[in-house]
Amino acid sequence: MATKVWDGFIRGFHWLLVIGIAVLYFSGEEGWLEVHFVTGYLLLALMATRLIWGIIGSQTAKLSSLFHSPKAILASFKSTATYVGHNPAGSLMVLAFFVLIIVQLVSGLFTTDDILVEGPLVAHVPYSWAELAGDIHHTNIDILLIAIAVHISAIVIYRLRGKNLVKPLLTGNTAEPVSSAPAMRSGLIAYGIFVVLSAILLFTWGYEPLMALF
Hints:
Layout: E1 3-4, H1 8-30, H2 33-56, H3 70-78, H4 88-109, H5 127-160, H6 167-171, E2 173-174, H7 187-204, H8 207-212
Antiparallel strand pairs: 1-2
Helix pairs in contact: 1-2, 2-4, 2-7, 4-5
């Protein structure tokens, strides 16, 4: 019997993040500035929603469920035990992604190239801070791409070991036996928060680049 382990928002968050990071990277590389900024604001709203949902959301969405001892993390690399939600090693990867993505998005708010690109908060900090933010923004994306490659490799390795990590993030369910079904909340609540935060950020910072797309 299948057990629901991921709510609708967590599943949507994962795939929206995949699409958003791809668009953010390619728009930055191709110089599509309006697309880059609008995508960045939407991803910022998405990450903020995920953090809020990590406090008020479903049991497997809780941020507290992502923290494990080093001993548990090391043991999970060898263990074939079934976990409700992310295992300790997977939780560490999730936390790493959260940090890298937030650093990328926040540094972009303070980044300028003195020609065309200027984040909405550049004018509020010393120029040296903007230069530092620009360096972080350009270096951090490379680290993020490496982390993505490691993540994909881990998914492949687990698949070869007989564990499909992708399917539950599509269906929300696992067919593996669990001790008890996790408590779920409707993902529609989180999507509502996401829409509100997106509207605020786009109205505050993204109105001009958004209008430029139409």
